[in-house]
Structures are given as C-alpha cells and as structure tokens.
Amino acid sequence: MADLYDWVNDRLGIMPGLVYVVRRKIPADVNWLYTFGSATLFLFLVQALTGGLLAIYYSPSPDHAYASIQYIMNDVTYGSLVRGIHHWSASGMVLLVVAHMLRVFFTGAYKYPREMSWMVGVVLLVLTLAFGFTGYLLPWDEKAYWATVVGTNIAGAMPLVGDWTVRLLRGGADLGVLTLNRFYAMHVMLLPMAATVLISVHVAMVIRQGISYPPRRDE
Amino acid sequence: MATDSEADDSGEEGRRRFLSRTAAVLVTFIGGALAVPTIGHIVSPTLKPADNPLVPLGSVDQFEIGKPLKVDFLYYKNDGWVQERNSASAWVVRKSQSEFVVFDPACTHLGCPYGWSAEQNQFVCPCHGGVFSIDGTVLAGPPPRPLDRFQNSVQDGKLFIRQVVQRG
Ligand code: HEM
Ligand code: FES
C-alpha cells in the first residue's frame, strides 16, 4: 500500500490532496441528515453503472425497445436484477435529492458563502427529474407511452410557447420514433455529461468551503 | 485482557478505527454485490448455447432410397430479441427405410452449390471439379474434406434436421 502510494505520488503528487479530501475536518455535531448528499452521489454512481449495463442490450427504436427489455428481463444473466437496481435507485435518488435539499434548507446551509452550491444544486434537482422523465419512456410499453403523452402535454399549458415546447420535447407533433430517440440520447448522453460536470463542481465547492456548521440555539 | 491497543475500541482512536473498518467491510460487501451481477450481465451471451432449432423437412415418403433430393426449407432463428426468418436448402440421401443422411448444399472447397449427377451417381461441383460419393466422401478435385452434414431425426413419419451444420 505504502509503495503504491509513493509510486503514484512520485509521478503525480496528488496523494496528500486526496488524503486531505478524505481526512478533512467536519463539524463535530453533524448528524445522519448530512449524509443525504453523499447518498445521492452513491446512487448516481450506481445509476451510471447499471445504466451502462442496460445499454449493452437495450435498443432505442419503437420496433425493438419493448422486445429488448423483455430480453433483458428473461434472457440476460442478472438482467432483471440490474434493471431492478436501476429502477429502484432512480426513485431513491429523487427521494434522496429532495431530502438533501430539505436538510440544506432547514439548516440554512444555502446562505453565504454557499449560494453557488445551492444554485448548482437546483440545476442538479432538475437534471435528476429529467433523468426520471426521459428514462420512463424507454421501455416503450403502454404505461411509458401514455405517461409521456400526458407529461409532454403539460408543457402545452404554458402561454405562448406551450405548443412549440411540446413539439420540442417530442421532436414533432406526435410521440414516435423521434421522441424515443431524443429521450434516449438525453437519458444516456447529454444528461449524464451535464450531471457529471455539475456534481463535480458541487462537490468541489463542498470540499473547498467545508460543510456548514449546524445551527445552534445560542447563535 | 486486551491490553494491546490495536484491539482497544474505546476512546477517540478506537472509535475511528472501528468506523473505518466497518466502512471497509461495507464497501467490500457493496462492491462485491455490484460486481457479481455486472460481470454476469456482460458475459451473459457467451453462457448460452448457440440457437440450434429443429427444422421439419416434410414427410419421409418423398425420398427414395439411393436417390438424393435437394429440399428448400425455412427456419426461424433467434438473434437476441429478434426472430429471423431464413431460407436454406439441404441434400437428403435416404440410405434405408429409416436411415437418412442430410448434407449441407455448399461444397467444402469454396462453398459452391454442388449438384447430383444421376449418370455418374456422384455429387459434382461445377466450380473446380470437386466430386463426392453419395456418402459424402471426396472422390476427386480440390475439396479438403467430406461434405458437411446436418444432424437428422425421424419423428411420426417426418424428417427433421438441426439447423447448425456439422463439419464433414
Ligand atoms: C445530484 C444531486 C446532488 C448531489 C450528488 C449532491 C451532493 C452533495 C454532497 C455530497 C454535499 C455534502 C454535504 C451533504 O452531503 O449534505 C452537498 C452539499 C450541498 N448541497 Fe448538494 N447534491 C445534490 C443536489 C443538491 C440540491 C438539489 C441542492 C439544493 C437545491 C443542493 C444544495 C447543496 C448545498 C447548499 C450544499 C452545502 C451544504 C453545507 O455546506 O452544509 N444539492 N451536496
Ligand atoms: S467450390 Fe466446389 S470444387 Fe471449388
């Protein structure tokens, strides 16, 4: 271990920095509520792994989407387990990100100097929900199809730009090949890239600034 | 008893050691729990035997003993979640009342479709002069091995083959 540490450090000189990140001091009176952010991060990594595995077999076209998911469920070794983890972690991630936000809100941790963490966090919340919305369509069954019809219709309620936004989301007037393909591209390419960058920024700020002190009665 | 400070889990140092060990155990456990399905999922297609469907070639009555007949057939094959419909053909040789040999119709030299010559009583390949006997052995020309075969079976008066070709 020590040899490996030296070997890497002799070349990159980053080991003390990494040790600092793991060993950095945090307020003594933080509690379990302060783990929601890390728990969200863990589920994000689980989603990246299981999502990548599902992409090995999933085919994003109306002709194949449903059958390829049946194949994952019935023919691929551990396929139903991998899909199950991805499914439940998706819901778990939404719950945790909201719990994390509530913790930040009720401890007042969004205040100076952490406003940027909060703002980046708001975008991450939107991205998390966008993951859920785009992912829900991919199985291309009745439930997925109609949920997306309804979900995209909601955008139509906006004044002036409503109709245009619905067409933007669907890639046309109706739900079809273009919708499935753009939802897939969003779900597996654009959203993950954006989330990876923003989570890195978010966590870098936490490390740079340290975790806020829990509010105390006498303050 | 445990005077050795390594085993002492009381106090600030002990608490830290206990927590980091617990974390290490949990990380190992969770890592393993993710690694096993990950590997299984990726290697899954290599664990499955190749699809080798049973294909019906019709009634045995159409085949005369000692007179090879070429039959065309359709078969369905699974390619992942897609079922493919393919057509192919085979040379059927009836050796006796109940015994059949079914040859792949591609010459074992470079894959030309060979034919049956009734005068010569031999299979003859038009491409480079390959000649095979009725039991598939090479009699002349460049083919490096006897004709490839399909496994066959007879059920209820019908001839069936397995779609995957066996090397001759
Ligand atoms: C993908 C989603 C997110 C991830 C992975 C994430 C991750 C983290 C982590 C690991 C921390 C360290 C402290 C803790 O765990 O509580 C943190 C802190 C913080 N997060 Fe998030 N977060 C996410 C979304 C959000 C959202 C939606 C908000 C608010 C709108 C937010 C606002 C903050 C703020 C202000 C802090 C600093 C808290 C402090 O210093 O006490 N984050 N985040
Ligand atoms: S392919 Fe038949 S002899 Fe060459």
Strand content of chain B: 25-35%
Helix-strand sequence of chain A: HHHHHHHHH
Distance between the termini of chain A: 45 Å
How many H/I helices of chain B? 1
CATH topology of chain A: Cytochrome Bc1 Complex, Chain C
Shape of chain A: globular
Helix content of chain A: over 70%
State the largest interface.
A-B, 19 and 14 residues
- Strand content of the residues of chain A, in percent? under 5%
Whole-angstrom Rg of chain B? 31 Å
The CATH superfamily of chain A is identified as Cytochrome Bc1 Complex, Chain C
The average pLDDT of chain B is 92
Total beta-strand segments of chain B: 11
CATH topology descriptor of the largest domain in chain B: Rieske Iron-sulfur Protein
Structure notes:
The complex is a heterodimer of chains A (219) and B (168). By secondary structure, chain A is mostly helical. Chain A has one domain: Cytochrome Bc1 Complex, Chain C, CATH 1.20.810.10. The longest helix of chain A is centred in the C-terminal third of the chain and has 33 residues. Chain B has 168 residues and is of the alpha+beta class. Chain B folds into 2 domains: 48 residues; 109 residues, Rieske Iron-sulfur Protein, CATH 2.102.10. Helix content of chain B is 22%, strand content 33%. Chain B has 1 helix and 11 strands; from the N terminus they run H-E-E-E-E-E-E-E-E-E-E-E. In chain B, the strands form 3 sheets. Chain B has a 4-stranded antiparallel β-sheet, with no helix packed on it. Chain B has a 4-stranded antiparallel β-sheet with strand order 5-6-7-8, with no helix packed on it. In chain B, strand 6 and strand 7 form a beta hairpin. Chain B is elongated. The N terminus of chain B is likely disordered. The site of FE2/S2 (inorganic) cluster has 11 residues of chain B, from loops.
